Amino acid sequence: MRTLFVSVFLLISPAVMADAASDYAAMCASCHGASGAGDGIALPVKPANFQDAAFWKSRTDAQVKSAIKGGGAAVGKSPMMPALGAAWSDAQLDAMVKYLKAMKK
Questions:
Q1: Residue 5, pLDDT score
Q2: Residue of 3, 19, 5, 1 whose CA lies nearest to 91
Q3: Are the C-beta atoms of 90 and 9 separated by less than 8 Å?
Q4: Would 75 be classed as within a structural domain?
Q5: Which of 12, 21, 55, 101 has its CA 20 to 30 A from that of 33?
Q6: Is residue 27 one of the residues assigned to a domain?
Q7: Average pLDDT per run of 10 along the chain, which is 105 residues long?
Q8: Would you say the C-alpha torsion 56, 25, 96, 80 has a positive or negative sign?
Q9: Cα(13)–Cα(16) distance, integer angstroms
């Protein structure tokens, strides 16, 4: 008997993924930088660098999703990171995590 596992990321529509790029540009790039290197505006606490492989090794997708959904304070990080869970659906949050992971070098 075979068991088939399907990642939730395979269920994200191309339209939602395209929206993730627009959402990132509108809501995230000013702090995290256009390419996700954490080099946006100068802040007291440096924003996450999504290009850094070490960032992704130390966090699960669920942890990153929680930070986006509940904001930095909800996960013990900077309260300057706003909570976006009320504005974005679960599919949008999943697409954003996938979009951010694509920035990893």
A1: 38
A2: 19
A3: no
A4: yes
A5: 12
A6: yes
A7: 43 77 95 97 95 96 97 95 93 94 94
A8: positive
A9: 5
Query: 68: part of which helix (H) or strand (E)?
Result: helix 61-70
Q: Alpha-carbon distance 89 to 61, whole Å? A: 16
Tens of pLDDT, residues 51-70: 999 999 999 999 999 999 99
Contact 55, 48 (CB under 8 A): yes
Query: What are 54-61's contacts with CB under 8 Å, separation 24+?
Result: 55/104, 56/101, 56/104, 61/97, 61/101
Q: Is residue 68 part of a domain?
A: yes
Could you tell me if 52 and 46 are in contact, meaning their C-beta atoms sit under 8 angstroms apart?
Answer: no
pLDDT of residue 11: 60
Quote the number of domains for the chain: 1
Choose among 32, 36, 29, 27: nearest CA to 102: 36
